Amino acid sequence: MFAALSDYWRLLRAGVSLVRHDVVLPEEYKSRMPAPARFAGGVLRVFAGGAKGRPGERLATALERLGPAYIKLGQFIATRPDVFGVEATQDLSRLKDKLPAVSQAEAEAALAAEFGAGEAKRLFAGLGPSVAAASLAQVHRMGEGADAKAVKILRPGVDVQIRLDLRAMKRAAARVEKASVEARRMEPVAFVQTVADSMLKELDLSLEAGATDELRERSLKDGHFVVPAVDWERSGRAVLTTDWVDGVPLTTPGVFEREGLDRVGLANSVTQGFLNHAIRHGVFHADMHEGNMILTPEGKIALVDFGIVGRIGMAERRFLAEILWGFIRRDYTRIAEVHFEAGYVPADRSVGDFAQALRAIGEPIHGRPAEEVSMGKLLLQLLDYTHQFGMHLRPELVLLQKTMVQVEGVARSIDPAHNIWDASEAIVSDWIKTEFGPAGAAKLVANNVREVADRLKRLPQVMDQMEAALAQTGKPAEPERREAFAPWWGWFGLVIVLALIAYAGWGNT
After folding, report:
1. Which of 118, 144, 188, 473, by CA, is between 20 and 30 Å from 270?
2. What confidence score (pLDDT) does residue 317 get?
C-alpha cells in the first residue's frame, strides 16, 4: 500500500510538471483532438504559465526538471520517431544532461564507501574538483601529465531515486496498457522495461568499464578512434577510472578552426569508425553526440562515456550492410528482398511494391551534392515506409538508426560537404566481399563443422540421460532385450548426428 501511494505521488508530481509545460494536451495538436480533449486542454493550459517552444522542446524541459530517470526516458523516446514523430524526437535528442556537481566531501565519501577509507586515500590522493557533472555521475581529474586520470563517480543516492521513479513509471505503464486498446499496440510496459534495463546497467560502472575496454581493443586495431584505457585497480560498481584524455570537446565553439586540421579526413574517420565497430564487430558506442567526443592535440577523435553500448548479431549486420550497399548501387529490388528475407516485412506484402517505395526514397538523392543528401533523412523515410508495410521494428535496429543519425550530424559539423555514402562504401564493400566471398563461405563451413563437433562430443551424455529416463519409466530391460535394443540405438544415434549437421547448416543460412 505504501509503495503504491509513493508511486502515485511521484506520478502526480510528474503530471504537474507536464501540465505546466503544456505537453499533456498541447495547443499545437488541438485541431486533431475530439471536443472533450480540446476542452480539457484549454483548462490545463490555465496552469501552463505561458510555456514557450515546440511540444518536443517543452517536453524536454519538463523531463530535465523531473530528474535523471525522466531525462533517460526522454532520451529513449528520441530513438522512436516511428511512434512519437520525427519533430518531437529530434527536439528530445537535444536533451541536456547537466546538473550542479555534488560537493568534494560527498564525492570523497562515495570513494570511501566503494574502496574503504584508507584504500580510497591511497588510490585517489590528489583528486581534483569536479570538471563535469551529469544526472547520474560526475567526473574529477586526478594527477597531471601522462599519469592524469579521469575519475567518474556515481552521484550519492541516485540509484535509490532512479529505482523509485522506475517503479512508478512501470505502474503507470501497466495502468495505461490495461485501460487503452490503442496503447497496447505501442507496448508501454515493454518500452518502460527496456528503459529500466538500460538505466540500471548505467548504474553499475563496472559494466561501463567492460564496454570501454572492449571498444578500446577494437579501436586500437581499426585506428579511427582514441578510447582511454581503464584503470581497473581504481574502478568498481560506483567508480570508473580511466586515463585522462587531453583535448577539446566537440561542443566547444570553433573547435574545428585549428590550423592544419584535416577536416575531410576527420569526418571520414568518424563515419568509417562507427561502421567498423557496428558492421565488423557488432558492437558500437550508442550515444555518439558531440558531448561524448573530444578532439585530441593529434587531430583524432576520442570517445568517452560508454554507458550505452549497442550490439547487433550477424543477421542484423548483414541486413545493415546490404541495405547501405543497395542504396549505394541503387539496387532497390535487393533492398526490398533483404527486408523480406530477414522477416522484418510480412510475407503477404509485395516485394515489388516495397521496391517501388524504396526507389521513391533513393532516386531523388542520386546525383545531388553530398551536402544536400542526408542519410538521417533517408533512414527516417525508410522507417516511415517500413511502418506502412507492416514492418515490426527491432529495438537494436532503432538504436542503430538513431546512432547513425548522430554520426552523420557530427561528421557534417566537421566537414559540411562530407559524403557519407563515399565514406561508407569502403567499409561496406570490403565487409561484403569478406563475408559473402570465398573467405566468408569457408568461415561459415568451419563454424558449422565446429558446432557439429561440439554437439557430437555431448552425444554420449545425451544418450546416457535418455537411457536413464527410459529406464525410470518401466522395469529394467533383460540382457537379451538390451542386445535387441543395440541396433535401434545405433540407428537413433545416426539420425541425431544427421539432424545436427542439417540444423547447423540451416541455422546459418
Report:
1. 144
2. 85
